[in-house]
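We emphasize that the prediction below concerns an isolated chain of 285 residues; any contacts that depend on oligomerization or on bound cofactors are therefore not represented. The input was used exactly as deposited, without trimming of termini.
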Amino acid sequence: MRLKTILDKFHSTLDDNYGKDEVNSFFDLIMEHHLGIKRIQLVLDPEYAITSGQEQLFSNALVELNNNSPIQYMLGETEFYGLPFKVNEYTLIPRPETEELVEWIITSYMQQSEESHLKILDIGTGSGCISISLAKNLPEVNVHALDVSEKALDIAKKNAKLNDVIVEFIHDDILNPRVSSSPSFDIIVSNPPYVRNLEKTEIKPNVLDNEPHLALFVDDENPLQFYKAICAFAQNNLKEDGILYFEINEYLGKEMILLLEEFSFKSIELKKDLFGKDRMIKGIK
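Result of the prediction step, given as a token string:
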């Protein structure tokens, strides 16, 4: 069958749900993953045909997408900060907003000398996207990464190997940490669960029905639960003048400033993402 015919079927089936541009993006990812070709191939050869076996792969993908399955889970991989990452149902799919958090840290520390020996801890690492991206772009930095999910850590370890970086992974629960308390980290960074249950209506079905709720949602009555725990942890584990970085709920920027002030952090900076939403914050111990 002609690949162009299959593309037309994707659009007729999925455009109402996802929009034409996103469907094009899906199709490009599937082509590259299963066929090893890019969209330009269809431009150069509109009659490009595939085998019945290959056609079945596209048909399976169409069914899953129509059922709101995330394409990243279907393909088992995604890209974050220009690096490849394996993902599955035990890890959140990395978001562009988190790339902005990583960029903020990298641009702040890339001029550090090799002798500085910075030590970073990523709390709630999931797929390892933050810790691995930092290790890849700040090669002289000593990176640690913590998560409560052993299955997520299994994926993160594979991603560290995939990207040829060294990260020390720690299985622990930040709400009840066993990690020894000593002020040894120069940077602590976290993108913890921050979506309130009352905000579930804003979440797309492909996220709500597939991504791990453990890594997404917090109780409406205690939305800063993880941030409070991490701030308390930082009191004993972040060096003097060390910096705490968070990705945050866009609706709770003011509350986060007050929280960091409560824990005596200074030089607090709230930063908007590319969409103009309060998305990141940092404070100095």
